[in-house]
Amino acid sequence: MASDSAAGEPSAPREPREGPTGRGALDRDRILRRGLTILDEQGMRALTMRKLGTDLGVDPMALYHHVPGREGLLDGITDLVLDDLRTTPGIEIPSTVGWSEYLHRLGHGMREIAQRHPRIFPLVATRPPEAPWLRPPMRSLWLVESFLSTLVSRGFTERSAIATYRVFSSFLLGHLLLEATARGAESAAPIEEPHPQSAGHVDAALYPTLASMRDGLQVDHSEQDFDDALGQIIGQVEALRAQGDR
Amino acid sequence: MASDSAAGEPSAPREPREGPTGRGALDRDRILRRGLTILDEQGMRALTMRKLGTDLGVDPMALYHHVPGREGLLDGITDLVLDDLRTTPGIEIPSTVGWSEYLHRLGHGMREIAQRHPRIFPLVATRPPEAPWLRPPMRSLWLVESFLSTLVSRGFTERSAIATYRVFSSFLLGHLLLEATARGAESAAPIEEPHPQSAGHVDAALYPTLASMRDGLQVDHSEQDFDDALGQIIGQVEALRAQGDR
DNA sequence: ACCTGAACACCGTTCAAGT
DNA sequence: ACCTGAACACCGTTCAAGT
Fold first, then answer.
1. Which residues in chain A come in under a pLDDT of 50?
2. Do A176 and A138 fall into the same domain?
3. Residue B226's pLDDT band (boundaries 50, 70, 90)?
4. CA nearest A208 in B: which residue?
5. Is residue A60 domain-shared with residue A95, that is, in the same domain?
6. For residue B17, with 0-12 CB atoms within 10 Å meaning exposed, 13-18 middle and 19 or more buried, which class applies?
């Protein structure tokens, strides 16, 4: 909910400025947030340095004074989105909860972000990571730091904390990415809709099983499925923790 | 191994043609395969309609007679890569193996694809799915059909087959995508290398836990980790199957 | 210090014209 | 039927010039 304040209609937030090009009108944060809402509303291809510039009432080339090109803009937006996790209760100050509650909140906090920004979430998995040497690699080292230090302070050995990071991160990414692309494709189609009528039709001759199971396959249990899977993973982690260093 | 025959050096397969622009020189498959190797070797941004055209010794605009634009080109390449699974033993003719062996082979077959094409694999998760109504959505319906029909023929109920599809697909995607971005970032950097010397350095003041665990975090256990996780998932599926319809 | 405007080197795609 | 070439409407980015 925190970041959405900047994602509303472009009506009110223009007020405090003296004009579209008033002094102080441009800074990195304002650029990033405007880019974020364009991405949310219109998708990847609509986010253009030139359009973003004119959108902010400024010569497009002025952006380069605050942001290191388009690539850097995307990285900045991705980090901005992930930053919302910082204010999630139980992650902000993890010392108040046990490790399994921490994992639970982290999982659901991350899921909320993926739901809020389905068009952007794939970037979290796809952007070049801040620490490429990390296996698996990750953007936002602060998140990994928080993750590991929380587990260690709860009695995990170094080894089991690392194993947990690996199990948990790939689980989370897989689940949320699939959910996000489902939602992204759904809310997509600003102009593009390749098969408007064939949508949802399955050729029963080619794919008999698929066709007969169609009803079951299209029901959306994602909330329930996610929670089940999260529980499974936490169970696995419990086993990891119990066997400690080996 | 099957598709690599076309992805190798451009020495032998050029023979039957009379010249770079000889008649019949251009067809959809040749375009897709050339695009695939460019993507593998030079990454996303290097794949340009214009460059692909001249690369094939043809006016770039000729491509549009065989491929519906760049977006369609990417979809075609993604499908081409996934098609390699069709020849994987145990998936080609699944009736010869049990369900757990099938899942095992499917998992490892998919992993091989992700390893072979780390720059392309993210597209599998990211391209608009062929069946958006499917939860989770998926490209290549044939794969889902094969998956479900195999399970059903091994005695899975409809319900447990669907549940298995959900558990398995998100597991597989998460693991392989993280591995692929690791490899992709590694083999990337054709020109771009933002932090050549800071690479691998962690600020111990900012991230003390990360810094102290560095050695353990950078070891690559991915083969072992994948196999372990695959085993876990197959165990979960066993439980799903046993409890049948509910 | 920050913004501007022209310029450069590209893109994807359409379409009339060729063969 | 297939390929070509010019054209259109865009891109990201650099850089000298303004204020």
1. 1-23, 188-198
2. yes
3. very high
4. B145
5. no
6. middle
DSSP states of B77-133: HHHHHHHGGGGSTTTSSGGGS-HHHHHHHHHHHHHHHHHH-TTTHHHHHHSPPSBTT
Burial degree of A119 (CB within 10 A; 0-12, 13-18, 19+): buried
Average pLDDT, chain B: 84
pLDDT digits (tens, 9 = 90+) for B51-109: 999 999 999 999 999 999 999 999 999 999 999 999 988 888 888 899 999 999 999 99
Q: What is the pLDDT of residue A128?
A: 82
- Whether residue A19 lies inside any domain: the answer is no
| Proximity of residue B182 CB to strand C below 7 A | no
Residues A206, A102 share a domain:
yes
Query: Is A109 part of a structural domain of the chain?
Result: yes
Identify whether residues A142 and A224 lie together within a single domain.
Answer: yes
- Residue A30 CB lies within 7 Å of the nucleic strand C: no
CB A216 to CB B159 under 8 A?
yes
Q: Is the CB of B207 under 7 A from strand C?
A: no
Same domain, B98 and B216: yes
Number of domains making up chain A: 2
Tell me, yes or no, if B171 comes closer than 8 A to chain A by beta carbon: yes
Residue B53 maps to a domain: yes
Q: For chain B, say whether A174 makes contact (Cβ under 8 Å).
A: yes
Residue B145 inside a domain? The answer is: yes
**Domain enclosing residue A37, as ranges:** 28-67
Q: Give the pTM.
A: 0.86
Residues with CB under 7 A from strand D: A 47-51, 60-61, 64, 69-71; B 21, 25-26, 58-59, 61-62, 65-66
